[in-house]
């Protein structure tokens, strides 16, 4: 594992933290490279990273918690909660949003995004930004990874719970699991052990500023490898949701045509050497992340990096492969 990681994360460059757990217990936990280039601070295993789209796991489970409370159903149409949402003739459900099969335009692909990237928007203002865009396809007909769907899910969580998305996940997930180094990201707040993020454009530069109200429920969580292990263990032991609900979350869903999409609710459902792999990565200005769980082997591998130029994805997969019998 050391040799795999050292080949990509050099001592004087932005770095990464990797953790491997077997049967819920950490068996490998190491930091590489620098947490801050300007201050020449070495990376430490307990440091806090932006995890980008791994946030979608938390959003999906938050929706599942509301489903268990009887406040919504995965098959509910979104107009039940947002009556003026223009579904353009589609029967668009929460299930479609969770599985990236809604057909909604991904707002991160819109040219106008630059004009709002530094503004603090309410969830409603953000939904209004993209809701009138033409659909990419009819709901259920294709799988197309889509941040907009998870923005709408965050907004629905707020409407149904009467709490902000941040407060809901803090109270119902982070506090319950004692994830004390996990946060809804904030530029102004002092966050202990927060690492700096970098781009590489003919040399390293500090990451661009983006208002965290934009990634919102699709990508605004910060965490550590230790807290992410608590999260994975909670999912494995049904600490937050029932085994029946977890089965719905981790089902490999199908399109209207019957074709499998290799995605559940907030997780990709894939295989490594014919062994089931439940995984998701993340990318946000200055950061990349990847987490893989092998249910048969009971192995969890997570890598967090503080340069969006250096993804931990392949190394995380290579490490996971070491635990799968050929």
TrEMBL record:
SUPFAM superfamilies: beta-lactamase/transpeptidase-like. It comes from the Bacteria. Residues 10-309 form the Beta-lactamase-related domain. This is Beta-lactamase family protein. The lineage of its organism: Bacteria, Pseudomonadati, Bacteroidota, Flavobacteriia, Flavobacteriales.
């Amino acid at each position: 594992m050391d040799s795999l990681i050292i080949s990509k994360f050099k001592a004087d460059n932005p770095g990464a933290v990797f953790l491997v757990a077997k049967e819920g217990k950490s068996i490998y936990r190491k930091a590489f490279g620098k947490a801050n280039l300007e201050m020449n601070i070495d990376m430490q295993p307990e440091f806090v990273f932006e995890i980008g789209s791994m946030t979608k796991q938390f959003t999906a489970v938050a929706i599942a918690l509301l489903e268990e409370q009887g406040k919504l159903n995965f098959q509910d149409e979104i107009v039940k909660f947002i009556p003026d949402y223009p579904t353009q003739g589609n029967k668009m459900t929460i299930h479609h949003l969770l599985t990236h099969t809604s057909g909604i335009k991904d707002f991160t692909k819109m040219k106008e995004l630059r004009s709002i990237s530094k503004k603090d928007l309410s969830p409603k203002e953000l939904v209004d930004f993209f809701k009138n865009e033409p659909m990419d396809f009819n709901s259920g007909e294709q799988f197309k990874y889509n941040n907009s769907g998870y923005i709408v899910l965050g907004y629905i969580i707020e409407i149904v719970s009467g709490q902000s998305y941040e407060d809901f996940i803090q109270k119902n997930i982070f506090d319950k699991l004692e994830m004390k180094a996990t946060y809804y990201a904030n530029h102004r707040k002092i966050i202990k052990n927060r690492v700096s993020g970098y781009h590489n454009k003919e040399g390293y530069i500090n990451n661009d500023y983006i208002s965290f109200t934009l990634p919102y429920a699709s990508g605004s969580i910060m965490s550590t490898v230790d807290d992410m292990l608590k999260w994975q263990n909670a999912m494995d032991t049904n600490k937050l949701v029932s085994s029946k609900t977890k089965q719905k979350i981790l089902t490999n869903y199908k399109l209207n045509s019957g074709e499998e999409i290799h995605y559940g609710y907030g997780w990709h459902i894939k295989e490594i050497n014919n062994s089931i792999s439940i995984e998701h990565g993340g990318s946000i200005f200055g950061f990349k992340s990847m987490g893989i769980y092998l249910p048969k082997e009971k192995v969890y591998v997570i890598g967090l990096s503080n340069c969006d130029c250096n993804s931990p994805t392949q190394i995380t997969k290579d490490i996971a492969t070491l635990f799968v019998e050929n």
